[in-house]
């Protein structure tokens, strides 16, 4: 049995700064088994609103089911993106001597061979998708990178993928990654030579716990599988990807930010950064969600309770400015609740950088 679930999480965070900040819309496809087709079972819109005077901390939350439909047959939707995979000529070129690692050459890699020599890219073999984070074929999910599929990938912590088609389906779902054409991998965004690029560098994670924490970024735009790992061992630190609202993926014209599911301490990336079910406490059912995005020079960092679950994180976590940085607001989850009194909080980093500290 499999079922699909779609969650649109739109976090509207309003603060002391003039412009409202918008977190990404995510359509979360839940699948229990490799899927051939993907259907939406339920839409849930999560609106975290807050117009607090003098503080960028959002304070209220509502969870509103907005629509649901449960198609059982194969989807027949014709998607606009599909045509983009069947256009243009193929180079069918023989593999070049060496593509180098920092610049991707279209039409060289077989679709089934994950381009693991590319700078910053991370093969997630344990997902069973040939190293990819997600395979999108038509309106469904695939298990290998085959003709016409979008084959997406993870980048190292702090980095982000550069590849998604500029033309996106009108239904609000997104496509991302490389595209498989004539048996070879091609970029979907030829403006970028590298498959991964550095994020803004204005956030990191410090883990003062005795156990590791698996932080799982949603692959967006794309499958929205929350499988891109930032695993931080106890006692260690790591960069955390921050995207720029102005230049990263725009959903229906609106800027988006990076979103992460944050597991209880003790879960590995292999276990924690995968789809869970309602009975689990990991992956999309992990207790906390982090957001990280910059708008007009201000990095907004947030911690929220995952609206899907009432399970609590088994640690404390707070956002702390780095030396010499300027952070507006306080965001602390301690002893099972947010000191803001609500189910989440946000800070604005106006200069420098800040870290999420697990303690
Ligand atoms: C984020 O980017 C979008 C698209 O450019 C823009 O409309 C929006 O105003 C930006 N958000 C803020 C808070 O500036
Ligand atoms: C922050 O700055 C203070 C004073 O300059 C210094 O003593 C301290 O070690 C710094 N902390 C870190 C983490 O760099
Ligand atoms: C920090 O921000 C405050 C208010 O936003 C501002 O007055 C102050 O000059 C800033 N400090 C630095 C070091 O940027
Ligand atoms: C959390 O618990 C510790 C230990 O009991 C206590 O020192 C601390 O003040 C508590 N924090 C909050 C925000 O209540």
UniProtKB/TrEMBL annotation:
<keyword id="KW-0732">Signal</keyword>
<keyword id="KW-0624">Polysaccharide degradation</keyword>
<keyword id="KW-0119">Carbohydrate metabolism</keyword>
<dbReference type="InterPro" id="IPR005556">
    <property type="entry name" value="SUN"/>
</dbReference>
<keyword id="KW-0964">Secreted</keyword>
<dbReference type="GO" id="GO:0016798">
    <property type="term" value="F:hydrolase activity, acting on glycosyl bonds"/>
</dbReference>
<comment type="similarity">
    <text>Belongs to the SUN family.</text>
</comment>
<dbReference type="GO" id="GO:0000920">
    <property type="term" value="P:septum digestion after cytokinesis"/>
</dbReference>
<dbReference type="Pfam" id="PF03856">
    <property type="entry name" value="SUN"/>
</dbReference>
<protein>
    <submittedName>
        <fullName>Cell wall protein Psu1</fullName>
    </submittedName>
</protein>
<keyword id="KW-0961">Cell wall biogenesis/degradation</keyword>
<dbReference type="GO" id="GO:0009986">
    <property type="term" value="C:cell surface"/>
</dbReference>
<dbReference type="GO" id="GO:0005576">
    <property type="term" value="C:extracellular region"/>
</dbReference>
<keyword id="KW-0326">Glycosidase</keyword>
<feature type="signal peptide">
    <location>
        <begin position="1"/>
        <end position="18"/>
    </location>
</feature>
<feature type="region of interest" description="Disordered">
    <location>
        <begin position="51"/>
        <end position="99"/>
    </location>
</feature>
<keyword id="KW-0378">Hydrolase</keyword>
<dbReference type="GO" id="GO:0009277">
    <property type="term" value="C:fungal-type cell wall"/>
</dbReference>
<dbReference type="GO" id="GO:0000272">
    <property type="term" value="P:polysaccharide catabolic process"/>
</dbReference>
<keyword id="KW-0134">Cell wall</keyword>
<dbReference type="GO" id="GO:0031505">
    <property type="term" value="P:fungal-type cell wall organization"/>
</dbReference>
<dbReference type="InterPro" id="IPR051526">
    <property type="entry name" value="Beta-Glucosidase_SUN"/>
</dbReference>
């Amino acid at each position: 049995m499999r079922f699909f679930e779609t969650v649109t999480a739109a976090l509207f965070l309003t603060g002391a700064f003039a412009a409202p900040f918008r977190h990404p819309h995510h359509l979360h496809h839940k699948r229990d088994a490799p899927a051939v087709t993907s259907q939406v079972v339920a839409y849930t819109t999560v609106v975290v609103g807050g117009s607090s005077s003098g503080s960028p901390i959002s304070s209220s939350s509502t969870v509103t089911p907005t629509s649901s439909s449960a198609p059982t047959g194969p989807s027949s939707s014709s998607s606009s993106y599909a045509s983009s995979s069947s256009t243009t000529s193929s180079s069918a070129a023989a593999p070049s001597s060496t593509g180098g690692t920092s610049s991707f050459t279209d039409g060289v890699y077989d679709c089934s061979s994950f381009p693991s020599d590319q700078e910053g890219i991370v093969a997630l073999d344990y997902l069973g998708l040939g190293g990819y984070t997600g395979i999108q074929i038509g309106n469904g999910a695939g298990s290998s990178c085959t003709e016409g599929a979008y084959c997406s990938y993870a980048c190292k912590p702090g980095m982000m993928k550069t590849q998604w088609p500029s033309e996106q389906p009108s239904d609000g779902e997104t496509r991302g990654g490389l595209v498989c054409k004539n048996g070879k991998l091609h970029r979907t965004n030829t403006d970028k030579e590298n498959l991964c690029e550095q994020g803004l560098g204005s956030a990191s994670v410090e883990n003062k716990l005795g156990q590791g924490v698996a932080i799982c970024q949603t692959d967006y735009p794309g499958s929205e599988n929350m499988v891109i790992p930032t695993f931080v061992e106890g006692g260690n630190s790591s960069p955390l990807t921050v995207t720029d609202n102005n230049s990263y993926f725009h959903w229906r014209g609106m800027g988006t930010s990076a979103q992460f599911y944050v597991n209880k301490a003790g879960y590995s990336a292999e276990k924690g950064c995968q789809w869970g079910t309602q009975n689990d406490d990991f992956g999309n059912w992990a207790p906390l969600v982090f957001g990280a995005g910059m708008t007009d020079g201000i990095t907004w960092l947030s911690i929220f309770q995952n609206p899907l679950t009432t399970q609590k994180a088994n640690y404390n976590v707070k956002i702390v400015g780095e030396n010499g940085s300027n952070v507006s607001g306080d965001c602390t989850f301690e002893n099972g609740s947010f000191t803001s009194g609500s189910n989440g909080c946000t800070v604005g980093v106006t200069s420098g950088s800040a870290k999420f500290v697990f303690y």
